[in-house]
Amino acid sequence: MESVKTPVVIVGAGLGGIRVAENLRNGGYDGELILLGAETHPPYDRPPLSKTVLTGDEERVDLKPAEFFDEASIDLRTGARVVAVDPSAHTVTVQRDGGTEQVSYGTLILSTGLVPRRFPGTDDVAGVHVIRTVEDSLALRAAAGSATRAAVIGAGFIGCEVAASLHKLNVPVTLIEPTPSPLSGPLGSRIGEMVTRLHVEAGVDLRVGVGVEEIVAEDGRAVAVVLSDGSRVDADLVVVGIGGVPDLEYLDGSGIALADRSAGGGVACDGVGKTGVDDVYALGDCANWAGHRVEHWTHTVDAAALVASELLGHTIPHQTVPYFWSDQYGLKFQMLGSPQSDDQVHVVDDDGRKFLAYYSRDGVLTGVVGAGRVGKLMKARQFLLTPTPIATLLDA
Ligand SMILES: Cc1cc2nc3c(=O)[nH]c(=O)nc-3n(C[C@H](O)[C@H](O)[C@H](O)COP(=O)(O)OP(=O)(O)OC[C@H]3O[C@@H](n4cnc5c(N)ncnc54)[C@H](O)[C@@H]3O)c2cc1C
């Protein structure tokens, strides 16, 4: 039984937006479907931006061929930024081509992603970069061509990937991280040490346990970074990789509730993407589903399928296992399940570069993390579908 109200208006022509549109069409929705995107590009993939696009091995990777939109009768409007939502009138206000218009919706789906956090006071400083859009990636690639040294602030997944990509472009890199090791925030110190050795082996100057006090600029250009231990890193290219936040100003005054910052912020939704306001759904990086906001590609893809099935009245079995990957120094890092940094870590395979580790809590498997161990990691997926004692895997 189809319960979707027409027209469907999707705000955000990124991964979540295009996937939910496609799922609605594949599921039989044949009413009007409008996809509004603030960027001037059709939907494209972000993971390559810190990897192959940055290294110049690939250009922008579009998520669909140009003809898809006509064939699927999806009214894609690029350069169209939603600036307000009025649920009582069932309209959104869109800025496009210098003008403003109201677009009516029956069903509204929000998938507006994140904006990167910037280092305070550096918005107009040349040589300071963030990475979220294809323009960001291309600007960073161009800057790398003439850089003497890069300082990458933040050794989370994106900071680590940028460090690895700049290293591949022969730019000397200093990677700065306030926690004791790269990725130790999400994955804990044991795996952090294993990631450390990859960066060190590559010759990256890794500074851990220190923050950044200041980005020093001369004549409007970055020249150095001053760390919290007082040391100075001379760098004419600075990449700020300190995460992103949902930009939800367009929801001000709409009555669509946001989740508390302590829970990750984002649009507050239930476990299938429904907000507290009738006919309004949210998914992807900007959405907080049942108390969690997740910034992973696969999570967005799964969420898009769930929102579409919810709207179409189909029930799809929800048996997904959270999955994330990252590419660094020619190795594929993968994470399955929901490992926590304070879980018990069981390293079951380590050749000094590639590794596989299980995570457990109270004796139950919570996740699997590997580098260069694709087959073995995927074999463990089945054990994350139901609670599995860690002993089962360790004894196998
Ligand atoms: C550099 C980089 C590398 C990544 N690597 C990985 C990886 O290796 N593995 C992994 O699992 N995940 C990775 N991710 C995360 C993954 O790309 C995201 O989880 C995914 O793109 C989320 O999709 P989304 O639809 O929520 O947001 P997005 O894909 O960001 O799309 C949101 C779109 O909404 C538009 N928008 C925003 N506000 C408005 C508005 N008011 N009106 C209209 N349009 C608006 C934006 O311009 C944007 O185009 C990476 C992300 C980045 C940035």
UniProtKB/TrEMBL annotation:
<dbReference type="InterPro" id="IPR023753">
    <property type="entry name" value="FAD/NAD-binding_dom"/>
</dbReference>
<dbReference type="Pfam" id="PF07992">
    <property type="entry name" value="Pyr_redox_2"/>
</dbReference>
<dbReference type="InterPro" id="IPR016156">
    <property type="entry name" value="FAD/NAD-linked_Rdtase_dimer_sf"/>
</dbReference>
<dbReference type="InterPro" id="IPR036188">
    <property type="entry name" value="FAD/NAD-bd_sf"/>
</dbReference>
<protein>
    <submittedName>
        <fullName>Pyridine nucleotide-disulfide oxidoreductase</fullName>
    </submittedName>
</protein>
<feature type="domain" description="Reductase C-terminal">
    <location>
        <begin position="323"/>
        <end position="384"/>
    </location>
</feature>
<dbReference type="Pfam" id="PF14759">
    <property type="entry name" value="Reductase_C"/>
</dbReference>
<keyword id="KW-0285">Flavoprotein</keyword>
<keyword id="KW-0274">FAD</keyword>
<dbReference type="GO" id="GO:0016651">
    <property type="term" value="F:oxidoreductase activity, acting on NAD(P)H"/>
</dbReference>
<dbReference type="GO" id="GO:0005737">
    <property type="term" value="C:cytoplasm"/>
</dbReference>
<feature type="domain" description="FAD/NAD(P)-binding">
    <location>
        <begin position="7"/>
        <end position="303"/>
    </location>
</feature>
<keyword id="KW-0560">Oxidoreductase</keyword>
<dbReference type="InterPro" id="IPR050446">
    <property type="entry name" value="FAD-oxidoreductase/Apoptosis"/>
</dbReference>
<dbReference type="InterPro" id="IPR028202">
    <property type="entry name" value="Reductase_C"/>
</dbReference>
